[in-house]
From TrEMBL:
GO terms for molecular function: 4-coumarate-CoA ligase activity; ATP binding; trans-cinnamate-CoA ligase activity. Residues 45-409 form the AMP-dependent synthetase/ligase domain. The gene is 4CLL4. This is 4-coumarate--CoA ligase. PANTHER family: LONG-CHAIN-FATTY-ACID--COA LIGASE (PTHR24096), PEROXISOMAL OPC-8:0-COA LIGASE 1 (PTHR24096:SF413). It catalyses: (E)-4-coumarate + ATP + CoA = (E)-4-coumaroyl-CoA + AMP + diphosphate. Belongs to the ATP-dependent AMP-binding enzyme family.
């Protein structure tokens, strides 16, 4: 970016006609260049004026910044000395949001070990697949979630206060035992961690049915932390904010923002272990929240409440996962005129935010995902020819920046198809950028179904349904739903030998084997699945059929 003359870049759109690259209109943020630096050290060394780091919303338990960093240091020392965890080891964290989530994440990454997280709603089978791929040497989980680790003998630390008699033989300790131990500071004995060492291994839903491990480095995370702090204007010694954490910390945005990054600003994170409207409203009131991150269905639910909700000192809502409609934004503004709505767009592969609206004025560009994040370049590329496109033309969005993943874990072919030799990340999203540099998402090449902010890959459900003895062929599509955004719908071709397979039986078959958010919630039976000459399912035809036929 530095080598290109700014005169060649259009000031309104950020587009360069000579290179067909869109440049971020936002001021660049600094990314450290020292070779030996881990994200935990970077965050803990930032100056701020905050006092309370974490609050458990249900119990009111508070953790000061000094208590947080002591817990992180003691835990990392205990992992190193008592469990021989070292640089490059993979550690699994299976947990709902909790005060312990940031402590474990930061301690693991400070050692140069690699953190892999998973959705607590996932089934034992889904979690076992991730473990078989990532080979963790130690797991952290809660007592209720312990059975989801299956039959594996992996040593496990419980995120509990104490052990109980007759505990599972895999349990080697509790988090309370480890962070209460007298380990001292063992940083001098740790192997140096480099910016380009892997920090996280998060699993992203793919279109092939197989979930892929996304390897992000310390440089990637530090870059995203800087972008997040810049977005919320939290650099330096400014006034700390209070965030209600409703988004899952196992997700890339929850991990980058609420389990790590915002702790470097002195802001307070109020943690909800699970979403409930009444509990969220109580937390907003009791803890004086100023920021509320959420997914669109929660915002729609808040708007749908007949009475005006008491939002107290809340100033900003952060929405992500899917664009908000003009009706929702305007309706919310009329009902809550003092609250700004900000939106964002990102992927696991981009370590979080690739574009965002950072003010109420930017959000008034209805339907936009916002302006490109600082330090970000983009291309819009014709999906068929690979030709780069100018402003206001739709094609696949490519992103480039210091936050782009290193690649897919043990999957060079998938990496090659997604990352090119010049560092461009092919997002799989059909987009355009307008004359003012705003990004608009038109469609998804990846065909992921967005259910309440969760990503559901159709191919995964199709592969599962094809194992049913009475199903000959199947296609899964997104079906629009007011509350969820989209729900998975299956078009099923029965085998000739089928004994009258019912829609209920199809849904129950899937329900037993997947996380609740992946359940098929609508079924239609057809004589064949429409496909193109190469065998690719014509999902758009099925979506059109489904949405035009109310009798399905």
């Amino acid at each position: 970016m530095a080598s290109e003359s700014r005169e060649a870049i259009h000031p309104r759109s950020g587009f360069s006609p000579s290179t067909f690259i869109f440049h971020s209109k936002r001021k660049p943020v600094p990314v450290p260049s020292v070779p030996h630096l881990d994200v935990t050290t970077f965050i803990s060394s930032r100056r701020h004026s905050g006092t309370v780091a974490l609050i458990d919303a249900s119990s009111g338990h508070r953790l000061s910044f000094s208590e947080l960093w002591r817990a992180v240091d003691v835990l990392s020392s205990a992992l190193s000395s008592s469990h021989a965890i070292s640089k490059g080891d993979v550690i699994l964290l299976l947990s709902p949001n909790s005060i312990f989530f940031p402590i474990v994440s930061l301690a693991v990454m400070s050692l140069g070990a690699v953190l892999t997280t998973t959705n607590p709603l996932n089934t034992t089978q889904e979690i076992s697949k991730q473990m078989a791929d990532s080979h963790p040497v130690l797991a952290f989980t809660t007592r209720p979630l312990l059975p989801k680790l299956g039959s594996t003998s992996i040593p496990t630390v419980l995120l509990e206060e104490s052990r109980i008699s007759g505990e599972d033989s895999r349990v080697v300790s509790t988090i309370r035992d480890l962070i209460s131990s007298d380990q001292g500071n063992m940083s001098l004995r740790r192997e140096p961690v480099n910016l380009d060492d892997p920090a996280t291994l998060l699993y992203s839903s793919g279109t092939t049915g197989a979930s892929k491990g996304v390897v992000s480095t310390h440089r990637n995370l530090i870059s995203m932390v800087q972008i997040i702090l810049n977005r919320f204007k939290l650099e330096g010694d400014g006034e700390p904010e209070t965030f209600i954490c409703t988004v899952p910390m196992f997700h890339v945005y929850g991990l980058a923002a609420f389990a790590t990054g915002l702790l470097g600003s002195g802001s307070t994170i109020v943690i909800l272990s699970r979403f409930e409207m009444e509990e969220m409203m109580r937390a907003i009131r009791d803890y004086g929240a100023t920021y509320l991150p959420l997914v669109p269905p929660i915002l729609v639910a808040m708007l749908g409440v007949e009475k005006t909700l008491p939002l107290g000192s809340l100033r900003r809502i952060l929405s992500g996962g899917a664009p908000l409609s003009r009706e929702v934004i305007e309706g919310f503004r009329m009902k809550y005129p003092t609250v700004e709505i900000l939106q964002g767009y990102g992927l696991t592969e981009s370590t979080g935010i690739g574009a965002s609206t950072d003010s109420a004025e930017e959000s008034q560009r209805y339907g936009t995902a916002g302006l490109l994040s600082p330090n970000t370049e983009a291309r819009i590329v014709d999906a068929e020819t690979g030709k780069p496109l100018p402003v206001n033309q739709t094609g696949e969005l490519w992103l480039r920046g210091p936050f782009v993943m290193r690649g897919y874990f043990k999957n060079p072919e998938a990496t090659r198809l997604t990352l090119d030799s010049e560092g461009w990340l092919k997002t799989g999203d059909l987009c355009y950028i307008d004359d003012d540099g705003y990004l608009f998402i038109v469609d998804r090449l990846k065909e992921l179904i967005k259910y309440k902010g969760y990503q559901v890959p159709p191919a995964e459900l199709e592969a599962l349904l094809l194992t049913h003895p009475e199903i000959k062929d199947v296609a899964v599509i997104p079906f629009p739903d007011k509350e969820a955004g989209q729900i998975p719908m299956a078009y099923v071709v029965r085998k000739a030998s089928s004994g009258g397979l019912s829609a209920t039986a199809v849904m129950e078959f899937v329900e037993k084997q997947v996380a609740p958010y992946k359940k098929v919630r609508r079924v239609a039976f057809v004589s064949d699945i429409p496909k193109n000459p190469s065998g690719k399912i014509l999902r758009k035809d099925l979506i059109k059929l489904a949405t035009s036929n109310s009798k399905l």
